Amino acid sequence: MTQLYEVPAKVLAFQPTVDFDAGLLSRLGKSGPRYTSYPTADRFSDSFGYRDYLHAVADRRTRGNARPLSLYLHIPFCDTVCYYCACNKIVTRNRERAATYLAYLKRETEMQGRLFAGMNDIEQLHFGGGTPTYLSDAQMGELMDHLRRCFRFAPDNVGEYAIEVDPRTVSAERVHSLRAQGFNRISLGVQDFDADVQKAVNRIQPEAETRAIIGAARDAGFRSVSIDLIYGLPRQTPTTMAATLEKVVVADPDRIAVYHYAHLPHLFKPQRRILDEDMPDSDAKLRMLQLCIERLTAAGYVYIGMDHFAKPDDDLAIAQRQGRLHRNFQGYSTHADTDLVSCGVSAIGAVGATYSQNVKTLEAYYDALDRNELPVARGARLNMDDVLRRTVIQKLMCQFELSVSTIEQAFPVVFRQYFAAELAQLKAMEDDGLVSVNGDWISVSSRGRLLIRNVCMVFDRYLAVPSAGPRYSKTV
Ligand code: SF4
Question: Which residue's CA is the nearest one to ligand 1's atom 7?
Answer without folding.
Answer: 130
